[in-house]
Amino acid sequence: MSGHPSSHLPADGHAPVPPPPGGYDTVPPAVGPPPAAPAPPRKGLRALIIGIVVVVLLALGVGAWLLLREPPVPDPETAAEELAAALEAGTPADVPLALETSASPDEQYDRVFEGMLAAVGEDAGTVTVKSVTPMQEGDDGTATATATFAWTWPVAAEAAWEYETVAELTYPGPTDGEAGAWEATWNTGLLVPGLEPGEQLAVERTEPARGEIVTTSGETLVGMTPVHHVGIDKTRPGWDTAAAKLGDALGFDQATTDDIAAQVESAGAKAFVEVITIRENDPEYDFDAAMAIDGVVGIPDELPLAKERDFARALLGSVGEATAEVVEESEGTVKPGDMVGLSGLQAAHDEQLRGVPGLAVTIEPAEGGAGREAFTIEKKDGEPLAITLDPATQLRAESALADLDNLASAIVAIKPSTGEVLAAASGPGSDGYNTATLGQYPPGSTFKIATSLAMLRSGITPETALPCTATINVEGREFQNVPGYPESAMGDAVPFRTVFANSCNTGFISQHEKISQQQLHDAAASLGLGVEPAAFGAAAALGDVPTEASATEHAASMIGQGQVLATPLAMATVAASVSAGHTVSPWLAQAPGETEAEAPSGDLTADEAATLRDLMGGVVQEGSATLLQDVPGIVGAKTGTAQFGDGSKAHVWMLAIADDLAAVVFIEEGELGSTTAGPVMHEFLTGS
């Protein structure tokens, strides 16, 4: 047994390894653990793979489900908003509609609202969505909803026609997997409640009566007056020769007649070319002779006119058809064709005078017959405008200016105790411009009333001696007195009273270093010059006195020249303030409900005014206004001459106070205030 191999096992228990072929002399194999067998997949990787597979399968399933699922129903509110926008634009066919007839919705819209759009303007109406009911979904993918629309038509400045209409909305369901669109059931009731097919709206405006312009005592100054619009009708035989005959009958010059003929020739074949508007029974024109001409027509009408053709024309203004500019600026208040105030008081108070038109909207049946009322606004007639003009005083002023047909001119008269403007006349040479209240010119020596007030405030008295020399030089500029200035009123020590009475330029300018430009400005303001009136009631300017000026300009300001400007209204206010003893704020127009103008303001004292009246009295007694000595109740006056251009021409003025009347005469060009304006003032104050 000892020789059996099993009896010689190594101590580790393993059987001995037999020698390799060739013996142990070869390199033995590396000794180590046996190669590992392949491991099975890990659990995490297997789970990842399984998860990916599941996700892919789920995605494919969801995608298929989404492709097969019906799209959601669109929001009906969006469809309602789109329909509202289309209705407001007048193009309802721009959105899906369910039509019950073949009639075009857009054409129906145009026919229904033709009259409304003509009355209130294109694109004037607005349509908004008021509400949309919650949609009701059907089992077959359809849905329904109801939309309510709010319509607004601005038919008047402060009124609108507002109503609501209802549209039935239907969702037909998706098509080929795509979401469908909501449709509105179309009918004319969607435009106006209860409107039946074929019916349409009719709109009629009722024009209000224009308010009159009256005096504060109630006398009519401007009222509705019968007239005829005279013109040439090209549809009538004889129109081609009518212009020349009409020119002869109405007394036109050849240039005017030729212009009329050219207008008629260029007008359309059926045109009516208006030539002139003639008052009924106007003695200036032969209306009957005009009507006897072949081709001439007179269309009757009524217009707001003054009782006399030229009475206060520039001040009262005119009425005519609204211009495109007026229509645009009115922001819907004025429509094309409306009669409005175009100038003067008629324009300044147009809203009050014009009133509010009435408007009736009716639904007219397709077959004719009586319509039914849809909306109505009652007209509101214009209110009268009360003004302070005194007809007799105004006519007297116009008569005094009647011969000044080549020069701008004006007379303004104020009642000092109340500030009422009794007359504001612009002469024929003003060519329709309101020189009386708007024409600004250097006031010349009439401004010396303001300069005198500043001097009085500096300590000068009527008896203070001042130098009145032939000339005075201020920084190289020479000033002198007006031609013909009396030598008896000149000297090195002349009482201020005499300097004022004779209007010595050099005497006033001699004080230019003692009186500042600011003091001049303040004194003028105390008299109402350069101060905005508290409640004048019409377009007006009251001049301007600068607060700063160079030495030479300041010297010129002392005698009402340089940069000093005034209107006739402003200088009449100066005279009124002196007369009243306090600063007067002039007024012309009275707003409805007012009984009197605002209380005057300013710092003119009664003592200052009394001294100025005394100085102005000297002008009448011994100075440049002695021609007024026979005027009843005359208190005082002041003349003014303001050179312009090269100095060879002058604006001329005269102020006067007589009883409770303060007046000014202005003429654009003349010799002297005393010789040119003075006679006109005398005629105005005396009526002869």
From TrEMBL:
Record-annotated membrane-spanning stretches: 47-68
SUPFAM superfamilies in UniProt: beta-lactamase/transpeptidase-like, Penicillin binding protein dimerisation domain
KW Amino-acid biosynthesis (keyword) present: no
Pfam families: PBP_dimer, Transpeptidase
Enzyme type, top EC level: hydrolase
Substrates-to-products reaction catalysed: a beta-lactam + H2O = a substituted beta-amino acid
Region (Disordered): 1-40
InterPro entries, per database record: Beta-lactam/transpept, Beta-lactam/transpept-like, Beta-lactam_class-D_AS, PBP_dimer, PBP_dimer_sf, PCN-bd_Tpept
Similarity annotation: Belongs to the transpeptidase family.
Protein name, per record: Beta-lactamase
Organism lineage: Bacteria, Bacillati, Actinomycetota, Actinomycetes, Micrococcales
